[in-house]
Amino acid sequence: MSLAGKAAIVTGSGRGLGLAYAQELAKQGAAVVINDVDQQVADEAVASITATGGRAVAVVAPVGPTETAKQLVAAAVDNFGRLDILVTNAGVLRDKSLLKMTDEDFDLVINVHLRGTFTCVREAYAYFKENGIAGRIITIGSPTGQRGNFGQTNYAAAKAGIVGMVRTWALEMKKAGVTANAVIPVAATAMTKTVPFFQKAVEADERGEAMPDFFRKELGFGTADDVAGLVAYLASDAAAKVTGQAIGVGGDRLQLWSHPEAVATEYRDGGWTYEALGEQFDELFGRQLQSVGEEFPPLPAELQPETAGSK
């Protein structure tokens, strides 16, 4: 399962989850192209890999434009002689409820997450095909893209779109031996740090302590390092037959998400008229309507977030 001799690109890898992915790929032997929009952050990420004997270079550019995708692939080929792995992790958030979300809020998130994934994958796949490389495409989804989340119209659309593209790419890339998968991470990040529900877990992680079992097991919520192992596995030769999948990981939990399937089917001679639907829809489907959003079990008393004035 060694990744020795392989080269990878990880977008949005200056810090957080992306950095954990890059460091794990390097740990398993891959040379890595780091990507961030901040030069200092990118340089520090590179140093964290080279300091332990790994190989890494940085490309400082925003993900989204085709020019950045070309620059990333060129950096891998020019510095390491090849490209084998692409992890599309770069993203931004502009969370607002629908009536408060501006065109700019929507377009920015879609451009970085969805268009950025598209342009980078298109460029990497072109290189794989031209050079006969059975490459690995690993995209990053989200529970929000699978289930929805209040205030994240733009983010939900982008992450759901990424999984939809993965299923299509798995079909288009099969003949070339290239795999495409989506990882659905649940981990402590800058975003979850601000959510009171996860306060005790994030605080434990910041102290260098293990998160309480409730988070790691019941919620499947853990650290960035808990996600990185799956990313590296999907990049390996051992995962050659895994493609078109959405795989969740977090804490001690690993999940294989299903593709959308019909949960109930009914037929009516002559088709479904307005009147027929009014008479029969609730009886036929009322008890099988699907839930939306994530549903969490109640927090144990000892894990309740601390409020102002509490000790």
Question: Residue-averaged pLDDT, rounded?
Answer: 94
Helix content: 40-55%
Would you give the CATH topology of one domain?
A: Rossmann fold
Strand order of the largest sheet: 3-2-1-4-5-6-7-8
Described by strand count, sense and barrel closure, the largest sheet is: 8 strands, mixed
- By CATH, the architecture of one domain is named 3-Layer(aba) Sandwich
Morphology: globular
Distance between the terminal alpha carbons, to the nearest Å?
Answer: 48 Å
SSE sequence, one letter per element: EHEHEHEHEHHEHHHEEH
InterPro entries: KR_dom, NAD(P)-bd_dom_sf, Peroxisomal_Beta-Oxidation, Sc_DH/Rdtase_CS, SDR_fam
Keywords: Oxidoreductase
Protein name: Dehydrogenase
Organism: Arthrobacter mangrovi
Question: How does this model look, in words?
Answer:
- It comes from Arthrobacter mangrovi.
- InterPro entries: KR_dom, NAD(P)-bd_dom_sf, Peroxisomal_Beta-Oxidation, Sc_DH/Rdtase_CS, SDR_fam.
- This is Dehydrogenase.
- Belongs to the short-chain dehydrogenases/reductases (SDR) family.
- Keywords: Oxidoreductase.
- The protein has a domain of about 220 residues: Rossmann fold.
- The protein is an alpha/beta fold and about 300 residues long.
- Helix 1 crosses helix 9, helix 3 packs parallel to helix 4 and helix 4 runs parallel beside helix 6.
- It has ten helices and eight strands.
- Helix content is about 40%, strand content about 15%.
- Helix 2 links the parallel strand 2 and strand 3.
- It has an eight-stranded mixed β-sheet, sandwiched between helices.
